[in-house]
Design goal:
This protein is α+β, with helices and mostly antiparallel strands and about 170 residues long. It has 4 helices and 6 strands, in the order βββααβββαα.
Length: about 170
């Protein structure tokens, strides 16, 4: 995390700490005069910010809208769909993961393959990868970290859910 994240200096007289979680703002102003000098007020602001982030941990909004109760997989944010390609006249089995990035709804599709040729192992592999993707996203939100989806780029050739380092982050 950046050293001064959530801390601004709105004027020459002090620092402002603002943290917004689920639409509610927690803020406090740290006057240079009240705290003795500029460095002491910054130190107090950082300390207060760190305490508030600990108190508010896990309260960051994961969804733009509340999730629907309907789910095809039993995992929030992960759905199983069959997509039809009109050009090729074929249907494809997919697992799609939904998440929010910078206030915008995003999705990542793990296409298993042609419905007629999909094996149970291929489908399980795609589902487990989609589930891991979603849990990594939730871990990053809960811990105020940046979420990078690029580590899932070669998912068909690698069984990422067997990677103990990545799995430890997701759990």
């Amino acid at each position: 995390m950046a050293k001064n994240k959530h801390i601004t200096e709105p004027d020459v007289f002090g620092f402002q700490v603002r943290i917004v979680r689920r639409g509610k703002e927690s803020s406090r102003y740290f006057s240079h005069k009240l705290w003795g000098n500029k460095s002491k007020s910054l130190k107090a602001a950082i300390t207060w910010r760190d305490q508030m982030l600990t108190v508010l941990k896990g309260s960051k909004t994961r969804f733009l809208k509340p999730p629907k109760n309907k789910t095809t997989t039993g995992v929030t944010g992960v759905s199983r769909t069959i997509k039809y390609d009109h050009r090729k006249d074929k249907s494809y089995l997919c697992y799609t993961v939904f998440w929010v990035s910078n206030g915008k709804s995003k999705n990542k599709t793990f296409q298993v393959g042609n419905v007629d040729k999909v094996t149970a192992d291929d489908e399980l592999h795609a589902f487990r990868t989609a589930k891991l993707f979603r849990s990594c996203y939730e871990f990053s939100i809960d811990n105020d970290l940046e979420f990078y989806d690029n580590k899932f780029a070669g998912w068909k050739k690698t069984r990422l859910y067997e990677d103990e380092n990545l799995n430890a982050v997701a759990l």
